Amino acid sequence: MRAQGKDIVELFGYRPNDVSDIARETFVKRHCPFTDRTCSKTNHDQSVIYGVCSVTNGMKTGPHDEVIVCPKRLYQKNYGIFEDLAKEVWGDGTELVIGGTTTDLRDRARNKARPAVAFGQNSGTEISVNSNGQMSMDWVIQLYKNELDLAADEFIGIEVQSIDITGNYRDNWAAYGGMKETGNIPNSAIDNSGHGLNWANVHKRLIPQIIRKGNIYRGTERCVGFYFIAPEVVYQKFEEVIGDLPKLDGPARDRLSIKTYSISDPVPDGQIRDICPVRTVHLDAVAVAQAFISNVDENAADLLDERMASIL
To answer: What is the domain range of residue 278?
Structure first.
């Protein structure tokens, strides 16, 4: 039994009406299977841990109707996207080191021939830079030479984003929560979710943040790439704002490299769907910034005049 309208797609990693033992256990423990920690996705006063990974967008337009709303959903398989990226940038012999304190990272890196160490939330330290206001870099992965001791080499910056919701999925969540707690699937209808998707944040917050961080990365000597990792449907909204820009041939410190993902096809009870790569795009970082401020519909000024003339 599922809601017929807007709906939760994944709850603590599993289908919301999956009442297998493992799906119920993660719900009861409020456990995130992608970070192996307690889920951090709560209501406004932190009294309820919702654990919602993805939702429908209500459009029913095809494979991208399902939208990831928690960036940690992309950390599946022990940050597999980062391991793949490190090998893509520095070669197959590169070994990702992620998770734990700075001391933990150092000790583990010393036992690797070619370590790439990830710095970010719950992994060493989060990297912040003062640039007319404090800028927190989401993730930075740094390659190390390991000869007599660890020596910092090249690094890449990474920004991982999903999309926030508006409204709420409270009643929809409560119906599925009852299933998880009892193990029974009712015959009654499931309440539709009341969520929306905060697409306005793409141009209000997301793109400006990407541009500002890109300005920092392109001024460094050892940075060899700045990556934006997001669900495919989120990047499609990004493209609506910046337009169609020339595609370049690979990463560099003065480029924005985009990697997009979607969720795989449904799986049986007790299993978690994979995330699947959709596309990789490389753009000139300055061109992205210029497009953001100048890509305005040619009729926008006339439409504003007409709107103001007829408002009363």
So the answer is: 77-161+202-294
